[in-house]
Amino acid sequence: MEINDIIKPQNLVYRKPSLLNDAHMHYCPGCSHGVVHKLVAEVIEDMHAEEYAIGVSPVGCAVFAYNYIDIDWLEAAHGRATAMATAVKRLMPDKLVFTYQGDGDFAAIGTCESIHSCNRGENITIIFINNAIYGMTGGQMAPTTLLGQKTATCPYGRRADLNGYPLSITPLLAQLDGTCYVTRQSVHTPAAVRKAKKAIRKAFENSMQAKGTSVVEIVSTCNSGWKLTPQQANEWMVKNMFEKYPLGDLKDNG
Amino acid sequence: MATVKGAVTVNTERCKGCNLCVVACPSGVLDLKKKEVNNRGYHYAYMIAPDKCIGCQSCALVCPDACIEVYRVVEK
């Protein structure tokens, strides 16, 4: 069979989700953000939630998320995405409200809002991208940076006596009574992408059914910040990140 | 026995040449253009061995820029 016989509309099995618009994404080649944007767009499309989904984009690399996914968005002050999502969800309980935050936004400057939103059990979904570094500002040390990991502000590697220990925030949130679903996923292989999509779908459904806060942590790569190629970054993540941030469901009250 | 044939199309202007699809492909179908670049200067992906494609969507799933479309036919 010739290629031209295969490439026909009736044989199409995978395409760019229609909610992901044609704007060129500013992310570095190989960045995990692109995959997660795609999954969010696919899930909203699958749920037919285009008309009632509201995202809150953070400060960080994903600050321009509103340019890429064709739904309603709000831009929050640095770290305050969950507080803003709380307000939106309380005023409009029939909307699907989610935040999309990186580790600098969610686990550093926004720790207070993050923990208290989860403790109040707001019916929102938090998508938390953990790449163990401040990507947008040029690869400085984040609270989630691993011990020994080199960044611009700890060029000899992170030391526990000087810089403290890496913060694993998702298990903390799993202990709170307000959260209903806390999971940690990744997007480095096709199988992991499928699992992450299921997790996002479940989290969105939980928030629509008012079960409590759902947190989906995505352990991600930052190949520019880590000074690796996209392929090497995935390998480095599997080797080093999964030890401190093991994948799987931490809590599932669904 | 039914055989599965696949093919992919790459949005070459959207592709950033990150190589993740090449790594994810289980049958070695894809590669990056070694000498040609798109308008942004990236070596984009293309099918170097189209006959081997089985339409499994692995490349499209890991593509961060959603530039791969997958087609699949089951021949009886």
Q: What would you say this structure looks like, in words?
A:
The complex is a heterodimer of chains A (254) and B (76). Chain A has 11 helices and 8 strands. By secondary structure, chain A is an alpha/beta fold. Chain A has one domain: Rossmann fold (3-Layer(aba) Sandwich), CATH 3.40.50. The radius of gyration of chain A is 18 Å and the shape is globular. By secondary structure, chain B is α+β, with helices and mostly antiparallel strands. Chain B has one domain (3-75): Alpha-Beta Plaits. Helix content of chain B is 13%, strand content 29%. Chain B contains 2 helices and 4 strands. In chain B, the strands form 2 sheets. Chain B has a two-stranded antiparallel ribbon. The longest helix of chain B is centred in the N-terminal third of the chain and has 5 residues, at 20-24. Chain A binds chain B through residues 1, 3, 5-8, 11-17, 20, 22, 24-25, 27-35, 38, 187-190, 193-194, 229-231, 234, and chain B through 5-7, 9, 11, 14, 16-20, 23-24, 40, 42, 50, 55-58, 60-73, 75.
Which structural traits does this protein have?
heterodimer, A: 254 residues, alpha/beta, Rossmann fold, seven-stranded mixed beta sheet, B: 76 residues, alpha+beta, Alpha-Beta Plaits, two-stranded antiparallel sheet, 2 helices, 4 strands
Write a concise synopsis of the structure shown.
Chain A contains eleven helices and eight strands. By secondary structure, chain A is α/β, with parallel strands linked by helices. The model of chain B has no long low-confidence stretch (mean pLDDT 93).
